[in-house]
Write a structure and sequence with these properties.
39% of the residues lie in helices and 28% in strands. It is an alpha/beta fold. β3 (39-41) and β4 (47-48) form a beta hairpin.
């Protein structure tokens, strides 16, 4: 056998050996990492949360080689469009405005928002109780618009880069109230009774959260939708949701 032919045969064999790894989809997933219990960084520096578990389950179902990283919420969509990563799994509400920029999978959970106050504020459970107050909200979320629609210039709105910092200011009495995802805040109130928080008023912003993908990546969108359908049908989704919230977040 000539040296040239030997090299070609050797390379062909190496490609066959390596093909499973090379053939696996490599998908870069971004989440915020500051939205507990949906996504956060634990004391060991590892990403955890409902979104993280869902992302891992989807990747396992697709047999994809996935990496997860954090991305500031404000720049999440621009970073996706700039191809810094391929997919957003970060509790992003599906809105018409966002759909103009990116594509979304089918909803992977449903949620509403609520106002939260300190119990020691002793506020009446009505809209007028917040007039003249300072309300905190994570910026670039749909909740900021809710405050403006409900109160106009009757309140002061203070925005935050993360929901965690908003919670911190409410706890330290630099805010009178805040608005955020009700499942998120219900989890916080249950696990941090020392904060002395409670809900005020009703529930707002019924939304569906989806996985964000670039519009041109139609094949990837189809794969994620198929994987999502699989983990819902085989019970994996309910196991993950029950682990974090005690119930399925697919309930509308």
């Amino acid at each position: 056998m000539s040296m040239k032919k030997f090299i070609l045969v050797f390379l062909g064999m190496m490609m066959l050996v390596a093909s499973p790894a090379l053939g696996a989809d490599k998908i870069r997933i971004a989440t915020e990492g500051a939205y507990s219990p949906f996504n956060y960084v634990n004391p060991k520096g590892e990403l955890e949360g409902f979104d993280v578990d869902i992302a891992k389950a989807l990747c396992e179902t697709m047999k994809a080689d996935c990496t997860l990283a954090t991305q500031d919420w404000d720049g999440m969509i621009p970073a996706l469009q700039a191809k810094k990563f391929d997919v957003i799994v970060a509790s992003m509400a599906i809105t018409e405005k966002r759909k103009q920029a990116i594509a979304f999978t089918n909803p992977y959970y449903y949620s509403v928002a609520s106002y939260v106050v300190r119990k020691d504020a002793n506020l009446a459970d009505n809209v007028e109780a917040l007039h003249g107050k300072t309300i905190g909200v994570q910026r670039a979320t749909i909740h900021e618009g809710t405050i403006k629609e409900m109160f106009g210039d009757k309140v002061t709105i203070k925005t935050y880069d993360t929901n965690e910092n908003c919670i911190l200011d409410l706890k330290n009495k630099r805010l009178d109230a805040m608005i955020a995802s009700r499942p998120l805040m219900a989890h916080f109130i249950t696990h941090h009774p020392d904060a002395g928080f409670s809900f005020l008023l009703g529930m707002y912003n019924p939304v569906a959260a989806g996985i964000g993908i670039r519009k041109e990546d139609t094949e990837l969108l189809e794969k994620f939708n198929a994987a999502l359908d699989t983990i819902i049908k085989n019970g994996t989704y309910d196991q993950i949701s029950t682990k974090w919230f005690g119930e399925s977040l697919l309930k509308k």
